[in-house]
Amino acid sequence: MGSQERDEEGLAGSVCIRFIKSHPEFGGQEFLPAGIYLDQGILHPAAARKELMLADGEHDDLVDFILAKARRVFLVTLTLELGPENSCCCMRHFMKYDFTDKQLPVSREFCDKDPAFGLRMWTSLKRQKFRSSQWEFSAPVFTKEGCTHRLEQSQPLPFLPSGDRLLPSPQGASSIVHQVKVHKDHLENPPLDFENNRRLIAVKQIHVTAEFQSQFDAEAKALMDIRDLEHPHIIQWLATFTRGSGFYLMFPWADGGSLRDFWKEQDPLAMDLEGMRSLVLEALHQFRGLADAFVKLHMDKIYRHGDVKPENILRFRDGKTATGVLQIADFGLAKQHNGPTHHRTSTTTRHTTLQYESPEAEEAMKGKAPLSRLSDIWSLGCVMFEYLVWLLYGCEEAERFGKDIRGKNLDLGAAPFYYRRAGGQAALNLTVERWLSHMKEDAEGSSGTAIGALLLLIQNNMLTLGPLSEMANWQTRDRSRTGKVRLSPGTRASAGETMHLIDDIIATAEREGGEYLFKGAAMTDREPGRTSRGPPSITNNPLPVRTSTPSQKDFLSPNAALLRHNRSTSGKNTPPPRLGPHTVSQKVSRNIKRCPERTAWHKNEDADDGAMGATVRIILAPLITTQEMNPTWIYAVDEEIPDRIDPKAMFSPSLPPPAALCKKCKELDFSRPGFNVTYRTHDLRARAGTCGLCKMLWGLCEVHKKTEQTEVKFVRYQSTLRMDDENTPVVSMIRSPELKTSLLQLGFPKLPESGSNMHFNIIRQWLAICDRTHDCAPGSDKTEKVTLPTRLIEVGSVGSPTVRVVETKEVHIPLDSGSPYIALSHPWGPQPHFCTFPDDPQNLSAPNTISQHKISIPVASLPATFQDATTATRALGKPYLWIDSLCILQGPEGDFKGEAKKMETVFSSAYCVLAASWAANQQDGFLKTLPGQETIRGRRDRQVVTFKADDKAAPLYMCEMIDNFDQHVLKGGLNQRAWVLQERALARRTVYFTERQTYWDKLASFLGDPFFPSLALQGNRGEQIHWYQSLYTQYSRLGLSHDEDRPSAIRGLESRLVTAFQKANPDFRGSYGVLDDGPTGGLLHRSLLWRRGLSKGDLRVLERIHFPRGHDGAPSWSWMSYKGGIDYMSVEGSTVDWNHVKLEPRRNRDSGGEKFAHPSPRTLVVVSREFRAEVHAHHGADKGVCEITFDSPGGTAGNPGELRCVVVGSEKGEPIGRNEGGRVHFVLIVKPAGVSERGPGAVRTLKAYKRVGAGLIPGRCIIDGEGDGEEIAVV
User: Fold this and answer.
1) What is the DSSP letter of 1195?
2) Alpha-helix residue ranges (DSSP H) falling in 1037-1082
3) CB 940: neighbour CB atoms within 10 A?
4) 442 and 450 Cβ atoms separated by less than 8 Å
5) Is 1181 exposed, middle or buried (0-12, 13-18, 19+ CB in 10 A)?
6) Residue 933 has what pLDDT?
7) Is the pLDDT of residue 346 over 70?
8) Which has the higher per-residue pLDDT, 873 or 557?
9) At what angle do helices 864-875 and 757-773 cross, to 10 degrees?
10) Can you tell which superkingdom this protein's organism belongs to (predicted)?
11) CA–CA dist 979, 984 (Å, integer)
12) 8 Å CB contact between 987 and 906
């Protein structure tokens, strides 16, 4: 194009031909490089005057404004072709209202409301064109000072392809990494490689889910906190940005890949002697550098990395060495400590990488203990050990080591460097010990070599299970006369001690060199194509694999399934939204509990007089048992529901005006990724009288007892604020529609009135979205057909004064549009109860009979809870309602026994369930105005502070946090009732009406499965075990008005569970809380190994339930025959041999039991043995102990010599009685029942026993271990 033609097109045309197309993976939009519009040779005073047709000296102030503050605004305006006069008029108006480049890009709301666009010429079409044209001029410039950028989805990115072909992007579970070039005008201080060339850039894109958004926030915060370290072994953070709903981090591209990539690329077996010596020395220096990086992280920034592994150690080529420079990367699980480990009680750590996880991390993730920064040293030791395996034997052997560590469980994705013994103690993985011994016997790893010294460091002070070093004292640690660190073997070193111990090895290497680094004794075997070998693999490795934190495949322990399930479902299950501003996501649960330690056979002082102690513990190793789940909640930002609600309805005029703010609060940017702010508490108190936000935060300090602290930190998590990194949010942040960011929630600062049109509109939207997208509604493609209950309540139209009960077989109820009814879950409370009774021929005038209720029931006569359920059902557009007391005939002549069996279909076929969580009885109701009780600052409504940093800023509403699904619903009174568990688990969708707000749950709130038990069927065996054990342990702790209902109140769930598993295994059966998958499956054995719960609040004894005459009852081996909570013994199936156990129908009387999928068995046919509980001192503390928990004191009354044990399972090894040593057996404890039973096949009579306890017994305590024992019947 010639200069004359460019002149004719003007400045806009000259600029537009310089547009560049961005990277196709980021949209491929065109953008103008910053150097063009900043170029004084392109946009200069004369050029501006020419476009506006201004003479020299005319409107100099406007020209100065354009060149100094509005270059991009000017160019966008020129692209609209308004003409010189109109363009000049617009620019003068922009100058008047100080509309500059800083405001770009602008939103539609801004253009419609801001006075800068108030001229008549700004028609809606021209404003739309301005918004469209602005994007090409809005590519961000990434500066070191402004490391966080919030971009609109339409905003182009200054990223260019890295070469002629696009490289595949590395992708992980939570992110994908793109390799790009950043245009030279758009990245200040670019990283340079060893040849002083600009490096390519890695753009890490975090997947948009609730969990991964929180990971992005955590990583962004950590990177901002540590950026000033500028450590050569810590990845350099360049920038953070959000774009639309995406989250991105920018780093230099690691041209050498990860450490794992290096091991695969480089073959140490092909190197000559000098090359190997150089490689070992390089490894020493890199280990030292990584340790020093952890010193800076641990000591200077008080950070724990939390996920050290080869994939998170990146390699940058340096042009000098084969290894290059290793840098620690990926801070998504990093955690800043608020104090010494021993001063903290727990950790908020999420799941780390199993193979490199420390033993204490396993306990920390159960919420049992804080996690030290020294867990990073364990992980670093694992990486260093693998590095040495690779150095000595090459990549193939390093991969074999990974297979060996998994033992025979080759389908496992990973296994840690330790395992748990049967008693629960951690021990170094036997495969690691075997490889370690082999490497120390290798000439290159022997004493007097650098590799040998590293192996000793790893063995003695990194992969240790003993005490942890006090990090705060490492600099003053005692040293020997030589100046070397003195650290006892078995003590985990701090990062500083590790660094100095490596320094000692480096000093020796530099002093002695040569053979100290690498002897080369077997170099004749180290030719290319040949492989030096590690120890031979053990194909039948009996190593127990630790299963409480599983990896990717099948674990057999039930404790394995919980964390495995959470990982597999992260980001897939849609969390239960609610009427508040946030969304509750899935529970992340920790469910392992250790038993308290007690000693010997002793009398429990808390037990009844004359009774033997309820728990007998002869201590060696604590038994691990499951307890009630302890959920942690993820608060996700939900945009789907708010988009369907009129914003005007959300933000009523009653909201408070913008609060007065202090200088510090005005500068806060809550939408910044990784936002956190620290206040001095005395400043908050001093400014509480003049700053609205400081007043709110100081009030929170008072409520949460932080006033004595010097400082308090607030960290944004999703759309909430947490205090001092604690789990529970204290402030909910709600954005106005004008504030465009996906990081903050659009919602209700003040909730709509309960029972109002807006209230029901939101519930209808919840249900409509679920109907359209999730297939949860009964009758949808993924659910079974709708089965109508025997009776329903016809609610009539809105305002109708009466309702009536209908027999569903007597009326036509169409099902073509799905389920026609809603079910109510409610507490009955004390008498009187409003019920439906059978007709009484002797008293035709009796009130509330079925005949009367089929004619009509005045709505005014219904108790308040039923009236509210009627109102809600009408408002949600359903014609029928199911309420148990009205649709099941009550009283002795009623049909409760038959109807109770149908609960499985009543709740699973309901369109949704209304849970009256607020109500305590039928009279309470649940659609009512919030009570006048005080909230945290003495107000009836929650406190709301309107935050506006300046007049032009969109408001943000800081609200008192009232979202607590765990307390309001799961731990609420309604959910503590046993019958309600079944209703929760079988319901497709539930709406919970609580005292503070309404919650919506489309996951049934029970184990996250809306199609119970479909997830259990899809899971591996460990998951399936966890599912049924979680079901039963939770149920066992719930209340019943009538204890004899314990088998009945879960019958529907149990029936569904058994029927589902029978589809894959026709031999599957179950009843009385015990499941059986056949003689070789082991599920029956696990089901029998329950014991009295030892959690806080559990009963000290299990009392037998006295079932009324005619009731089927439950056998003694079933926990359903007792009152009180139970737990299951933790058994790793791969390490246990199961003994013969068989269930038989009872022979001496007809079982008469309710039929499930199979006839209910009553008799447990087993072999019993004599045992003793004494453990003699000469066995030593490492030989194991008896650990028995009796069900109740009454179970041990009488002659203790009558007690016998039933060996259900045994640790793998020799048969019972042969070379027992400390081999442990899982047993039931039984005593004579005083009756006899006919044996299998009615061939002979067996002695009848009843169960009185369960536990662990070492083989040495079984007296007749050499014999066959005695076959008995446990009844």
Assistant:
1) G
2) 1051-1062
3) 11
4) no
5) exposed
6) 36
7) no
8) 873
9) 60
10) Eukaryota
11) 9
12) no
Q: Which two tokens stand for residue 911?
A: 């369109």
CA neighbor of 17 nearest in space, from 29, 1, 4, 28: 1
Bridge partner residues of 1123 (DSSP): 1103
- Kindly report the three-state secondary structure assignment for every residue of 655-723: CCCECCCCHHHHCCCCCCCCCEEEEEHHHHHHHCCCCHHHHHHHHHHHHCCCCCCCEEEEEEECCEEEE
pLDDT tens digit string along 116-161?
Answer: 999 999 999 999 999 999 999 999 999 876 567 888 888 999 999 8
Rounded Cα gap, residues 820 and 810, in angstroms: 16
1221 Cβ contact list (under 8 Å, min separation 6): 1183, 1259, 1260
Q: Which residues of 964-1000 are buried (b: 16+ CB within 10 A; e: fewer)?
A: bbbebbbebebbebbbbbbbbbbbbbbbbbbebbbbb
User: Of residues 1001 and 42, which shows the higher confidence score?
Assistant: 42
CA distance 631 to 619: 30
What DSSP string runs through 913-954?
EEE--S-SSTTT-SS-PPPS---TTS-SSPPEEEE-SSTTSP
> How many whole angstroms from its chain centre is CA 1071?
32
Closest CA to 974 of 928, 904, 919: 919
Cα 329 to Cα 222: distance, rounded to the nearest angstrom = 11
Which residues have a Cβ under 8 Å from the Cβ of 695 and sit 6 or more positions away? 687, 688, 689, 945
Cα 627 from Cα 763, distance rounded (Å): 34
- Alpha-carbon distance of 786 to 813, in angstroms, equals 11
Write the Ramachandran bin of 1126: left for phi over 0, alpha for psi from -120 to 50, otherwise beta: beta
Tell me, what's the pLDDT at 139?
A: 93
Q: For the chain, how are helix, strand and coil distributed in percent, rounded to 5?
A: 35, 20, 50
pLDDT in tens, 400-412: 998 888 764 444 4
CB 1262 within 8 A of CB 1225: yes
Q: How many CA atoms lie within 13 A of 1051 on its CB side?
A: 21
**Structure tokens of 1015?**
């997830």
Tokens in use for 237? 């953070």
Give dist(CA 691, CA 1089) in Å, integer: 60
Q: Which of 741, 641, 751, 651 is nearest to 953 (CA)?
A: 741
- Those residues with Cβ within 8 angstroms of residue 394's Cβ, 6 or more apart along the chain or in another chain: 267, 268, 269, 531, 532
- Residues 303 and 227: their CA atoms lie apart, in Å, by 13
Q: What would you report as the CA-atom Rg of the chain, rounded to the nearest whole angstrom?
A: 35
pLDDT in tens, 1151-1191: 333 333 333 467 888 999 888 765 332 333 334 567 888 88
pLDDT band, residue 827 (cuts 50/70/90)? confident
What span, in angstroms and rounded, lies between the C-alpha atoms of 1262 and 1210? 12
What pLDDT is stored for residue 1047 in this prediction? 83
Of 525, 405, 418, which Cα lies nearest the Cα of 462? Answer: 418
Task: Give the mean pLDDT of the chain.
Answer: 77
For residues 785-810, average pLDDT: 92
CA 11 and chain centroid, separation: 55
pTM of the prediction? Answer: 0.58
**Look-up of token digits 């447990």:** 1164
Cβ proximity of 901 and 1052 under 8 Å: yes
The residue with tokens 């932080």 is: 706
φ, ψ (nearest 5 deg) of residue 234: -125, 135
For residue 931, is the peptide bond before it cis, meaning its omega torsion is within 30 degrees of 0? no
Taking 90 as the threshold, does the pLDDT of residue 92 lie above it? yes
Q: How far apart are CA 386 and CA 308, in angstroms?
A: 13
More confident residue, 534 or 432: 432
